[in-house]
Amino acid sequence: MKLITAIIQPDRLDHVREALIQADITRITVSRVTGHGRQEDIELYRGQKIAPNLIPKIRLDIAVNNEFVDITVDTIIDAASHGDGEIGDGKIFITSLEECIRIRTRERGGKAI
Which pTM value belongs to this model? Predict the structure, then answer.
């Protein structure tokens, strides 16, 4: 089992969500977050560098069984990219998921996902 965390631009959320549904990935968690990556927006104010502003982003958390990892990642990449090669389309992190438990039924592991 893996936990896929994707940070994407807010305007791509509907595209990514629809693409995931088409790929039979329907269980996702969406959070609004802020952060800063490689965007170059350092400002000078009276000769001093000002820390860059935090930029609104969307965080998707998706727990999947191992056979769905590549499908999920490829779907997110295709749907989240603006296709213009600009910085800021986002990132995807894949981490091992030690255990998953469905509270209602007490199912564990891949069945609980």
Answer: 0.85
